[in-house]
Design brief:
By secondary structure, this protein is α+β, with helices and mostly antiparallel strands. The chain has helices at residues 23-34, 64-70, and strands at 3-10, 39-45, 52-57, 83-87.
Length: 89
């Protein structure tokens, strides 16, 4: 069973000039998360300030906690990491 989980990513404490719009950051997130077993798709959706990151995954293989843990290494080219918040409907 595939689940779609939405994340809001706060990068302002580490990269205030970006506001999570940097293609380099987004590409690294997509590459890192899609390499995880159980993740089938990672993509951005929404308009400008309301844009969110969505991850389609099998929660039996890639749990939300495991996905959140993956953000602790990102972005690799800055000190610090994204602060992900799961968005619930």
């Amino acid at each position: 069973m595939i689940t779609r989980t939405a994340f809001d990513l706060d990068c302002n404490p580490i990269i205030p000039e970006c506001g999570f719009r940097c293609p380099k950051c987004i590409q690294e997130i997509v590459t890192t998360l899609t390499s995880k077993e159980g993740v089938s798709k990672v993509y951005m959706e929404g308009e400008a300030e309301d844009e969110k990151l969505f991850v389609e995954h099998d929660p039996a293989i890639a749990t939300v906690d495991q996905l959140i843990e993956a953000f602790k290494t990102l972005p690799s080219f800055y000190e610090g990491f994204f602060i992900p918040t799961v968005i619930t409907a």
